[in-house]
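Subgroup meeting minutes
Present: P.N., E.W., G.H.
Scribe: E.W.

1. P.N. recapped why we're keeping a running log of single-chain structure predictions: easier to compare across weeks, and new members can see raw inputs and outputs side by side.
2. G.H. added today's entry (192 aa).
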Amino acid sequence: MIRDKYKLVLASSSERRLIILKRIGYIPDIIDVPNIKEDIYKNETPKAYVKRIAKEKAESVSQRHKNSFIIAADTVIFSGSKICGKVSHKDDAFKILKKLSGKKHRVYGGICVLSPNKNISLKSIVTQVSFRVINDQEIQDYLDTEEWIGKAGCYAIQGIASKFVKRINGNYDNVVGLSVIDADKMLKGIKV
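Output recorded in log:
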């Protein structure tokens, strides 16, 4: 990227994504929260979903920031045959964590980088996470911390919920919210 000529815009409200980008040397000039519907289409795969949502976030924000690089991302949990995104009710969060207890699930991350000339780099990443068995009281105690709010799958692997994780197979940063290795490669590789 030609940093003196173009701005970098992070299309996200996620503090985690900002921290991850800064950690690898990318400090966004602007943070702009996309305003899109994140509905899941009937029969949509988690891979297609995260790529579509990341792209829609980037395109939405790009209309307000001409001559900029835009980076956007999305994360969902896939357990059984169901996509689990963010929920706003504690009862729904309880049900999701109960479903994840003692089982494996997959975390799908989608990243989109949009260049000033509207070139698109789009990628999905999958990480498998295994939870230990979590009893109802542990779930309730976790929900009382409110750490789950705004998180895909109702947990933050980098926080208190790390004690539920038995095993991880794949990219840890993807579970947090943005795969650094992929974001870096995409930002360096996209043509203006």
